[in-house]
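REQUEST ID: PR-0412
SUBMITTED BY: lab tech R.K.
PRIORITY: routine
TASK: structure prediction, single protein chain
INPUT:
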Amino acid sequence: MSAGTPAAAARRRDQRVESARAKLLDPLRTWATRRHVINAVVPLLLLGMATAPLQAVYLDAGLYVTVIGGLLLGGAIAVAGAAYRLSVLTIIAASVVGFFVFGALAAPSTALLGVIPTPRTWQVMGLGMVTVWKHVLTVTPPLGAGGVVLLLPYVLTFVGAVLAVTISLRARRRYSLSLLVPAVVLAVAILFATHLPVLAGVLGVLAVLITITWVAWRAGRLELNRVLAVAIVLGVAALGGTAASVFAVPEAPRVVLRDYVEPPPDPQDLPSPLAGYREYADDLAETDLFTVEGLPEGETRLRLAALDTYNGMVWSVTGESTPGTGVFRRIGERIEVEVPENAYTLDVSVSGYQDRWVLNSGGSVDVNFLTGQTQELTDSFYYNSATDTGLVMAGLSEGDDFEVVADPSAQVDAEDVTELAVADVTVPEPQNVPDAIGTMASGFSEDANTPYAKIEAIAAALSTQGFFSHGLEGEVPSRPGHGEARLQEMLEGEQMVGDAEQYAAAMALMVRALGYPARVVLGFNVPDAGTVTLTGNDVTAWVEVPFEGVGWVPFFPTPDEDQIPQAEDPDPADHPQPQVLQPPPPPEEPPDVPPQDRDDTQVDNQNYSKEGDPVLWPIITAAVGVPLLLLLSPFLVILLAKALRRRRRRTRGSTVERISGGWDELRDVLVDLRLPVAAGKTRREAAVDVHGRAPGAGVLTLATRADAAVFAPEDPDEEQAGQYWQDVQRAGPSIAATMPRRHRLRARLSGRSLRRKRRQK
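STATUS: complete
OUTPUT:
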């Protein structure tokens, strides 16, 4: 009895295990029939085909993994629910758990090894359920697989599979309702897609054929001859529709939500405001840019843009949403909810200024456009509260007036922060920093013992040891730009020579080298109150560093304009000599008068050598100038041909042709600069190639605007064409500024773009 007890217990245990296994597997075996498999696979196949329009949005293999994974996961939950006859609440609970357990399908970049979800994965999925539509619609395709952008196809396929397969397997009569789910998914996919169709004709015919065949099979009315007839009719219709679309292009493309959602601006696509500093100091030095009324007592800093990222070529404005850089957002009634009692209002009239950056005094509470294209300016206005930078994508021009309501507490007094600690603010890490930056930052600040003292020591060293020069005619040479090579040249030279562009750029990098956050601000430092007219000569740049409790504090590293470098070989001093009695001059010889008895012919033919003979200088000029002109004639012909080509593109044809010509002009500039622009590429593809070289030049934006003008249903107006050409003419020098001077000169005289056009013909 005792010997049999363990054996009996083991048999009972095996029976319980076998019974449990049977209860678990028997329902699945019962449903593993051909009929149930087909009824589950057909809706999944139709759902997969319905997501095809999204392929043009992502252009990444991760989309296929997400779609297939979502379909299999949702289909498995639906099959299990039907096999075990689970309730609706149980299926919903299982779906929620499965959705997040396999969250790596939606956000693979946040998952461990791209497969195992992490708390970060679930966090971005939760937020993405609300914001994913914005990411998909406001980011220019291709989206790739980064972030949470794959959440959209994951939700569509997973939820669609659960619903469609559940209805298909559990509904006896109204199983055809399961076909509505792929139709809804298709409509959503088209709305979130682009205008580019993805095998629309082939997939459409195939989907209709599968649907008709499946419905007939489930109804018991499937006949092979009817299926073949339907296939032939659909094939002929597809071929006819394709042929008709070739000869009768639809007047308007299909409707997609991307056309109705305006993406937030990316300042990285715009030229760096600081890169145009020398243009203010030179071409616009005497031009009235703004007239500002209502300035408060004391010194006021008016800002155009705060630049917080450096890539080795330019300081530019960041569009990322980080604690230090913020993000550009549309504003509603006003920027801030509460208006301080001591707020002041600035009335700004635009004169010669033509750009997108909106003048303000920091701490702006509200901005209102009063005259000009007020509605267009208001609709395209964005403000970044973290950097106090306003951006109007429509662009400001002469005749536009606006008012700025500002908080005076934004103007921080430096004396109040000398003992405070620098705030812990996250800013983008600078790239390709000159080697001399770290060494000089340590040297300038080694005797200081507080953060403020260290930063002020750097500003004082640059402003006292450096010299000021715009590099204009009559001034000491000073190249524009603030790239790595330009700053290295200035800091390692025998004398530091530059203007606010170079000194502010260098100081911000030195402060970053000490481990403190810093940014460069382009604007105006106005000492007067009341009404002031600002010119290009008033533009300056300074550095801001955040301090605990008070915000960003300004520092001014630029030397005074009268602090100019001394010439290496100064003229010798004029030492007067003592007066000495000089001997009287010798008597003058009588003039050589021709004899009176000679006739006029003899006098005229007599060979006199006179200094300053008027015939001599034309001969010398011709002897020197003609050979020189012949030597320079090839270059003059190239310059003339380029000028005529540029004028023809800018003035002839419709606005669409002129904007397209503006892009051709920029592409020819890239060809002459010998930047890699492969033939046969689209504007967007060519812009992507150049963007990595000169991200601050706005080439991507120019390519997008040119495509929009060419493919838009209506032609752009004259103002848009003129603004496009202005941006093109700013982008070319901005790209060229990243290259050495000899390369820029070679590009100006190069005929590569002219030869390229001839080969294309």
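NOTES: Residues 235 and 489 are 69 Å apart (CA to CA).
REVIEWED BY: pending
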